[in-house]
Amino acid sequence: GVIEHNAFVDNPAAAVLLINDDDYDDPKEARMGWMPRNVTIVHNAFVNNSRCATDPWHTGTAPSLLGVVATAVVGPHAGQPAPFRRLTYRGVRRVTVADNRFDGWFRGLAISVGNAASAAVRDNTIANPPTSSSGVPLGAAVAVCEADGVAIDGNALVGRWSSVAAAVSVDARSTSRVEVHRNTLRPQSASQ
User: What is the pTM of this model?
Assistant: First the structure.
């Protein structure tokens, strides 16, 4: 499917969360549900999203679900804080996030690619990250974990990150074949 030409403004949490269908009341059932596949997110504007913390019932031990656009696979979890957790299964397939504008978010990441295979994050403009009182971004704009075959390419990263590696985080322990190319850092002007 395609998510195209939309304006996501002031969403309290994720604007787009591609997650398996965990719509069952009893985690002991251990069903994984439908997995997101063949999704393109293109030509959208994401402005001032992720104002609130995620719902702990559904995210459980998966704080990395907090992103403006995020992918994940969740499943049962026997312990606290909630009955679900993020799994290591790479069930999200063929997702592209391209030619979008991310302008401000309050918590987490602009884009979180998790539990995915064959994904691309390309040609996006990502600006106005959450910052410390000194204006330094509180974390990365894009993060990749539990993924295989991901391309992060040609994105404009507007903010005071010290390097592309600080703006694009790749968990080397849980990923393979992740390519980060042609991403550029641009300083954030005083008016932004």
Answer: 0.87
